[in-house]
Design goal:
Strand order of the largest sheet: 1-10-9-4-3-2
Number of helices: 1
Strand content: 25-35%
Oligomer: single chain
Order of helices and strands: HEEEEEEEEEE
Structural class: alpha+beta
Distance between the termini: 76 Å
CATH class of the largest domain: Mainly Beta
Largest sheet: 6 strands, antiparallel
CATH architecture of the largest domain: 3-layer Sandwich
CATH topology of the largest domain: Rieske Iron-sulfur Protein
Shape: rod-shaped
CATH superfamily of the largest domain: Rieske [2Fe-2S] iron-sulphur domain
Length: about 190
């Protein structure tokens, strides 16, 4: 007799002596194929999940300190001194080493400050003008005092200061990038 759609043909189920159904080889293999498929899917899913979560857990650029020189070298500053530091940037699996110019100067209280040479307006490199005794941006004419304070120009704030520390008599600086065209100092990277 053929089973047509709508027929109520019931296949009898073989039972063990204790009342549980007998497992055939086909159902046994089906269970193990399902378990093996789940295991393979979970093993393949781990790298995919790690790939998706990795950028959330890791910073793109590690903030490391760079040496500027012995602290005694900067004790008698009368005008800003430029130093070039090397910064190591890690972006995913790519590692790049670049050089950035910073200025070591003193504020009104005589404390050392390290300023980035990047203009807070549009990112031009700001040189020290010895004649005017100011930092003057060559792009748009922004002017800043020797301590980085805003004097004039299109910028919305003064030059950005960098975090410093002293380790074993060496002045160390942590270079950071800051958002341009905003009045508040915001760290970008």
């Amino acid at each position: 007799m053929c089973a047509w759609r709508g027929d109520s043909a019931i296949t009898p189920v073989k039972m063990e002596a204790d009342g549980s159904p007998v497992q055939s080889r086909r159902s046994f293999l089906g269970v193990w194929i399902g378990v093996g498929s789940a295991l393979v899917a979970s093993l393949l899913g781990v790298p995919v999940i790690r790939f998706a979560v990795f950028p959330l857990l890791r910073r793109t650029t590690e903030l490391k300190r760079s040496p500027l020189g012995p602290l005694a070298e900067f004790s008698s500053l009368t005008e800003p001194v430029i130093r070039t530091i090397q910064i190591e940037q890690i972006d995913g699996w790519r590692k790049a080493i670049s050089e950035k110019a910073v200025y070591i100067t003193k504020d009104q209280q005589g404390r050392l400050r390290v300023l980035t040479s990047i203009c807070p307006h549009l990112g031009c490199t700001v040189p020290w003008n010895k004649v005017r005794k100011q930092f003057v941006c060559p792009c748009h004419g922004g002017a800043y005092l020797s301590d980085g304070s805003y004097v004039s120009g299109p910028a919305l704030r003064g030059m950005d200061t960098l975090e410093t520390s002293v380790e074993d008599g060496q002045l160390m600086v942590r270079f950071q990038y800051f958002r341009q065209l905003v009045s508040d100092k915001e760290v970008v990277g």
